[in-house]
Amino acid sequence: MSTLRVGMVGCGSAATGHVYGMAASGQFDIVALAEPSPESLERFRARLPLLGDVPAFSSADEMFQAVDLDAVTVVTPHTLHHPIVMSAIKRGLHVLCEKPLTCEVAHAKEIAEAAEAAGVVVMVRYQRRFDPAYRFMREKIASGELGELRTIAVTCGQRWQRGTAGTWRQDPALSGGGMLMDSGSHLADMLLWLVDRPVESVSALVDQCGSPVDINTSATVRFAGGVHGQLTVIGDLAITWMETVVVSGSDGLLRYEVDPQHPWRTGRVTFSRDNQIVEPLRLQRGPSEHEAWADAIRGEGPNLSPPSAGVRVAELTAAIYRSAREGQTVRLDTDADVALSA
Ligand SMILES: NC(=O)c1ccc[n+]([C@@H]2O[C@H](COP(=O)([O-])OP(=O)(O)OC[C@H]3O[C@@H](n4cnc5c(N)ncnc54)[C@H](O)[C@@H]3O)[C@@H](O)[C@H]2O)c1
Q1: pTM more than 0.90
Q2: How do residues 99-113 score in pLDDT, each as one tens digit?
Q3: Can you tell me whether residue 298 is helix, strand or coil?
Q4: Which residue's CA is minimally distant from atom 7 of ligand 1?
Q5: Number of domains in the chain
């Protein structure tokens, strides 16, 4: 089977993981790079000498005009995702876009509609969807083993405010928001993906802690059927990283925690039922996000992180900001257009 010809838009720090992910899948050839910053490009080539001969362009559109591609990765500051992804879709290219898909709800919906119309696969890089511990939790909830779902609390924290000071991440014109738009986007997606029901209302507090963007966020999310969700995003954490999930149902309890010493590894998940705590001996691995992207492009698998995920996160994020700004609960219309089980 022939490999897919990929152009990479944005060659900063997160782009490196995409190179490794694509290489591990064996499904892609990286044939072009688009990166406006000569310094970023130089660092990228120094980290990845095997890409030394791959031609580079200073914009995505220049690359699209010059090189015959099947697909692109989009790994740029957040507000640039929408125009670049739309331009790629118009050229019939498949896209793996970093989170958040967009910073505006209307932009995410536009991408979802355009991708559908063009028949291309646009995947959002929410890698927790491919993490065996998160998959385990979703399966336990969906199978009914937890009983009736009651509450879910999702928390993530990073030493983000100090770590991102002076970068585009704290410039709203490029980031679209702070820690909630950045790493918080992953946990917003997990909250929505695990519960898999429409959001009815959101009540939130946001603290910018003297920064131009949100640093700490606490949101209470009411889902259809009365499930209570809590999303806590801590951007001024005293340590590097933390991440926990607690899901309570009428018959059981799921707990997940990342080891702060090894934040990039899958955390520890336990399932408690009838007062017994069960830790799965072996978590089942599925495809990686890059393997799943290739499978979806070839029509051999579903899009496991489709644009509708980006729409739902954008809707939740917008509701959180609005609730915090207005000091009141925001009601969301159940959006029948957005497939929940995506
Ligand atoms: N999934 C994850 O776990 C994860 C982790 C880190 C970052 N990210 C995401 O990756 C994206 C990039 O983050 P990063 O940490 O690599 O940032 P970064 O600053 O290290 O890299 C961004 C790169 O984009 C380039 N760029 C700016 N404008 C561009 C344009 N118009 N066209 C092409 N390139 C352009 C910059 O010059 C820079 O090299 C963001 O969406 C971020 O949220 C995701």
Answers
A1: yes
A2: 999 999 999 999 999
A3: coil
A4: 14
A5: 2
